[in-house]
Amino acid sequence: MTFDFDSQIDRTNTGSLKWDKYRDRDVLPFWVADMDFKSPPAVLDALHQRVDHGVFGYTLATDEAVEAVLSYLERVHGLQAEKEWLVWMPGLVPALNVSAAAYTKEGEEILTCTPVYPPFLSAPVWRDRVLKTVDLKIESGRYTFDWEALEEAVTPSTRVFILCNPHNPVGRVYTREELEKVAEFCERHDLVLLSDEIHCDLLLEQGAKHTPMLKLGEETAKRTVAMYAPSKTYNLPGLACAFLVVPDAGIRNRYKLCARGYITEVNSFGYTGCAAAYNHGEPWRQELLQVLRNNRDRLYSFVRQMLPEVKMYPMEATYLAWMDVRALGLDNPVAHFEQYGIGLSNGADFRAPGFLRFNFGCPPAMMEEGLTRLKAAYDAAIAQPVS
Ligand SMILES: Cc1ncc(COP(=O)(O)O)c(C=O)c1O
Q1: Is 2 inside any structural domain?
Q2: Which of 280, 297, 322 is the last residue in one of the domains?
Q3: Are 342 and 379 a contacting pair, CB within 8 Å?
Q4: CATH code, 189
Q5: Does residue 233 fall inside a structural domain?
Q6: Does residue 106 lie in a domain region?
Q7: Residues 336 and 382 sit within 8 Å (Cβ to Cβ)
Q8: Are residues 269 and 345 in the same domain?
Q9: Same domain, 289 and 355
Q10: Is 226 found in the same domain as 106?
Q11: Positions of E strands within the chain
Q12: How many domains are contained in the chain?
């Protein structure tokens, strides 16, 4: 290994959302989706240089950042995008909220598939839109779309479909076939497609391939807002830099009109970090993927052997494992696991009560400590009399 994925870095007093949640408690955090690794050295060098420049005025997207993104999209995903298609954002969560307002009127419907990343569920509601959800179904041991249920759920008032691919929290990398069906569904019902692809550079399954929605033909591209960011892959969420790729001028302008005055520019460091990550981060990413694959495999086999009542689904991508703990009969699974020193995300927030999400984007030694605590919590749950 050229890069350091082993050091356990003290993140106290850095305002870390992940760690400060348990500031005064002996609870190791495996919840929110950031990793406990330093960003690639090339990113740190670029940020140091930017600091040394010393002037931090209002900042437009730098040519370097734009070119880095366009070249990344082409090199990694075979997507030829144009500069004008890019809309820079300080995050994809604000982008989901702006989109909800831009593409629907009050009372109109936004459709998505659950379980899913919670801001997909809150954005429509916060904008007084109607949220419609359809559960993914399990087929041959993995999550996929329930087309019958989707056809039943969609109505003439539905305007938007939000797709998560790869899908947080279930870890699916949808196949081209599945995505062609999504595209056809959106066309047939004339829906704007918000395609959140933030996890697309974290594919763990050998042979898995990410299919950008924008590559599924002109008709699909015309109705798609594709959402990307370097933040998950290169561990930069605190730099607040994300971008949308929106080929259709009409769709893009509706978005921009809605965002104007509310959404700040990306900050200077965001553009710098983004450019450095895409231009120079690939060797680091390749090693990261190896570390994540090892962590994933270790977690899988540990759960299978030591926690047999817990069900896990294959994680094809992301550093987020999805665990079904319903068989443990716990009233409050998150609180129970916290009692044994391990902080996990609550499945109920994703519309799946009785599930937990485990973030394994951390040094292997930290994960081992997490596994020990997971086992202690599991044993205590099993030992409880069923009420
Ligand atoms: C699917 C998905 N979209 C968006 C985000 C967050 O995006 P941002 O930090 O750019 O707001 C996350 C973070 O976990 C995510 O999983």
Answers
A1: no
A2: 280
A3: no
A4: 3.40.640.10
A5: yes
A6: yes
A7: no
A8: no
A9: yes
A10: yes
A11: 28-29, 86-89, 109-114, 130-135, 137-139, 142-144, 158-164, 192-196, 224-228, 242-245, 311-312, 320-324, 342-343, 345-346, 355-359
A12: 2
Mutate to test the pocket of ligand 1, among 88, 122, 168, 359 (most ligand atoms within 8 A of CB): 168
Asked whether residue 186 is domain-assigned, the answer is yes
User: Residue 24 belongs to a domain with what CATH number?
Assistant: 3.90.1150.10
- Residues 231 and 361 placed together within one structural domain of the fold: no
The residue to which tokens 């929605």 are assigned: 213
> Could you say which of 232, 260, 280 is where a domain stops?
280
Q: How far apart are CA 346 and CA 382, in angstroms?
A: 20
- Residue 241 CA to residue 259 CA, distance in Å, equals 15
Does 241 lie in the same domain as 309? no
CA distance 356 to 322: 6
pTM (two decimals): 0.97
Residue nearest to atom 10 of ligand 1 (CA): 91
CA distance 13 to 288: 26
CA of 242, closest atom in ligand 1: 10
Most informative mutation of 117, 173, 235, 266 for ligand 1 (most atoms within 8 A of CB):
117
From first to last of its 387 residues, what are the pLDDT tens digits of the chain? 899 999 999 999 999 999 999 999 999 999 999 999 999 999 999 999 999 999 999 999 999 999 999 999 999 999 999 999 999 999 999 999 999 999 999 999 999 999 999 999 999 999 999 999 999 999 999 999 999 999 999 999 999 999 999 999 999 999 999 999 999 999 999 999 999 999 999 999 988 999 999 999 999 999 999 999 999 999 999 999 999 999 999 999 999 999 998 888 799 999 999 999 999 999 999 999 999 999 999 999 999 999 999 999 889 999 999 999 999 999 999 999 999 999 999 999 999 999 999 999 999 999 999 999 999 999 999 998 665
List the domain range (segments joined by +) for residue 212.
55-280
Question: How many whole angstroms separate alpha carbon 57 and alpha carbon 69?
Answer: 22
Pair 292, 223 in one domain? no
d(CA 275, CA 257): 27
- Cβ atoms 279, 70 nearer than 8 A: no
Q: Are 161 and 241 contained in the same domain?
A: yes
Q: Going by CA atoms, what residue is nearest to atom 14 of ligand 1?
A: 33
In the DSSP assignment, the letter for residue 377 is H
